[in-house]
Amino acid sequence: MSKAPLSLNEYDRPALDMPGKTNQLLLHSCCAPCAGEIMLAIQASGIEQTVFFYNPNIHPVEEYELRKDENKRFCDKLKLPFIDADYDKDNWFERVKGLENEPERGKRCTVCFDMRFERTALYASEYGFPVISSTLGISRWKNMEQINDSGVRAASRYPDISYWTFNWRKQGGSQRMIELAKQEAFYQQEYCGCVYSLRDTNRHRMANGRPRVKRLVTFYGNKKDDEDVELIALSS
Ligand code: SF4
To answer: Does 109 count as an annotated binding residue?
Structure first.
């Protein structure tokens, strides 16, 4: 089948079936590149979404602010509510203590997802959102099962909240994510987010004769396609 029908400007978006007979979604978002395609898909389905930015894992604060601002910029464009939650990084460091040398997708990431989704579920319970979900799973670099497990675990703390385990990568979602990132010239982060992922990405690059991570300077649309694919896969 030709790729064109799944591309951003050609895709005939189907109506998404959110669980729980509700039209209200609290969407945890990690960054603009991952969130953009998902936000469009949800909006096209007529689901009322509120974007919840809670990512105290992102280091350092300038990186956090830029990723947040980029996400808010696209929310404003789509006229969607954007919740700017705490940057309580001290709590994040406390929770991952002892897991500093875990590899990506390991135990530290489970704790990181748990913390972010627990806060999302708490906000949902306080403000009456019956369903939560996250943009983290669209990245092929992530373990979707690990993310869904954390999301379901966080939602299960509340009897009236469920976690929507939709696979956003399917039906060309990964392709449209990159197309949209280029179209909107989103900031292009080069590591997952925490100080340990920055360290490990730099170690990997240096071991392979590549330059260290550049922060705060690269936006989609000014690199070759193969580099785009690799970098967006690192986003979180
Ligand atoms: S690598 Fe990414 S998901 Fe894992 S702990 Fe660091 S920021 Fe969180």
So the answer is: yes
Low-confidence spans in the chain with pLDDT less than 70: 1-4, 223-236
The predicted-structure confidence for 65-100, as pLDDT tens digits, reads as follows 999 999 999 999 999 999 999 999 999 999 999 999
- pTM given for the model: 0.92
Strand order in the sheet with 24-28: 82-84, 48-53, 24-28, 131-134, 162-163
Q: Which numbered atom of ligand 1 lies nearest the CA of 111? A: 5
Q: Is 193 touching ligand 1 by the criterion CB < 6 Å?
A: yes
- The answer to the question of whether 34 is labelled as a binding residue is no
**Alpha carbons 45 and 16: distance in angstroms, whole number:** 6
Q: Which two tokens stand for residue 44?
A: 């096209």
Could you tell me which CATH number the domain at 21-233 has?
A: 3.40.50.620
